[in-house]
Amino acid sequence: MKRPNIVLFMPDSFSQTALDNAVTNNVQFPNIERLYRDGTRFTNCIVQHPVCTPSRCSLFTGTYPHTNSHRSLAHLLQPNEPQLLEYLVSGGYRVNIIGKNDLLSQELIQKYVQDPEENRFKPSAFPTPKYPEDHEKYYSFQYNTSNHGVYERDQYFVDRAKTWIHNHQESPYFLFVPINLPHPGYFSNERTESMVSPHQIAHLKPIIRDNKPLFHQGIRDTRNLELLDMNELKYIQATYYKMCLQVDDYLGQLREVLDDDTIFIFTSDHGDYQGHYGLVEKWPSSAEDDIIKVPLVMSGGGIPLNQVVTSPVELLDVMATILDYSDCEANHPHFSKTLRPLLHNPRVFHKEYVFTEGGYDTNEPYIFEGSPNANPRSIYYPKGLLQQTNPDSVSRFVSIRSKNYKYVKRSQDLDELYDLQKDPDELMNVIEDENYKPILTTLKEALLTWYLRTSDVSPIKKDPRHF
Fold this sequence. Notes:
This is Sulfatase-like hydrolase/transferase. By secondary structure, the chain is α/β, with parallel strands linked by helices. The protein contains 14 helices and 12 strands. The protein has a domain at about 5-205 and about 230-350: Alkaline Phosphatase, subunit A, CATH 3.40.720.10. Strands 1, 2, 3, 4, 5, 6, 7 and 8 form an 8-stranded mixed beta sheet that branches.
């Protein structure tokens, strides 16, 4: 049986909640909606870390951040680590990555990326901040419309991917296309600038000042976000939607050159606050669905059409799924579970709980962002400043999520519990509510069991004990 070509398309910071609220906000995604009809979408896909690199490392290794030690932006996959690309190459697949990195060390780039120099393309101009450096709203991540006529970096990546696909019709291949949008700063381009108006935004989660972790107020204070009124927050979310619509266009362009036998996977590494709770971007300790719930849609290769799966799944399950469809095998212990049975029977049991972890500990200051010599002109300056001056704001956390509840345990800051049936926007932290004690106890026990089962792995290869 002929093995399928596989394309993994990963925008950066694309939140599933933006798609969940699209109808309410009167925003249409024609190419994503077409992909829904042509395949199967998972509405509860949870990432294993709220930051780019650790999340991607979990996907490609099938292991959790506390198991693989990828817990920051600074540590990428190394040659000694078993991972998806290695197994695909060993199984006879041609692999390539076209786009941004945030995954591979330099040694692995040379091994798995064809023409890595081409991925360093820089556009002739970049969007500029909406406010000057000395303005009190400079750090709000609002940017001007990008220069008309500029050949944008993501369009360049998509064009290269289309050309590569056209030139590699021999099967099988695996192509990973990670692009930058809709990562902030928030800006639109000539095509999208009139597509979404702030007046369309009908669902914006309010600022919650009680029973929320320290970083909520910390981000608002260090970025002066308290100065933004509701109209400006809606402007931010409308602009975020414009960036997502540009991604929708790129997705459509990619799918135009694929045949029906090619498996196409659309997902993201994490989401974005997009103005909800009066916040922007993300945080290493974020556990809200706006950050940890991402799209996951698969099509082609016989995957059922127009199907919705509501069972909770983890982003790291994508590794085992790709290996399953490619008829390749992993030779290291991992926690990825193929989605193939669920794809063909949405009622089959997959996982009762899904997990996310993140944050840093005070005994590891070397992975904190920012430094005493940080440049205040950087749009990320407030992020490093908050971590350096209030390390508890970025304390480690772990989240356990069932279909109906979410519990967040933090090493320093307050814990959280949400009833996702009654409170899908996570506005009411019921951690102290006696009525939820039985649920909290169940989640704590399940979390402890998960840690016991995933705290370490034994190598598969056995060593001789004799001299």
